[in-house]
Amino acid sequence: MKAMWKGQVLAESDDIVTVEGNAYFPAASINERYFEDSDTTSVCPWKGTASYKSITVDGETNKDAAWYYLDPKEAASEIAGRYAFWKGVEVSA
Questions:
Q1: How far apart are CA 30 and CA 13, in angstroms?
Q2: Three-state secondary structure along 39-70?
């Protein structure tokens, strides 16, 4: 699967974990040059605390368009350190 935004491949992998309809990519599959740390976090009752990264392509930033669970709760342990996308990022096979 691929995650793309503004014509650039943000992540690509065959090792995908799908949870609640979201494809989670392994950390090693992301193209780090497009990602910037964000101070944003959110809390899911069963997954835990999510952290976010903003994506910048050709000078345009998509704030908090990627999220990950560095230390998820046990029920969501399979997505530890994996990235998922939203806010216009296209994820396709």
A1: 9
A2: EEEEEECCCEEEEEEEEEECCEEEEEEEEEEC
Which pLDDT value is given to residue 41? 98
CB 28 within 8 A of CB 42: no
Quote the radius of gyration of the chain (alpha carbons, Å): 12
H or E element in which residue 72 lies: none
Distance, CA of 24 to chain centre: 6
Q: Is the whole model's pTM more than 0.85, yes or no?
A: yes
Rounded CA-CA distance 47/81 in Å is 12
Give 64-82 pLDDT, tens digit per residue: 999 999 999 999 999 999 9
Q: Which residues, 6+ apart, have CB-to-CB distance to 65 below 8 Å? A: 5, 52, 53, 54, 55, 85, 86, 87, 88, 89
- CB-based contacts of 21, cutoff 8 Å, min separation 6: none
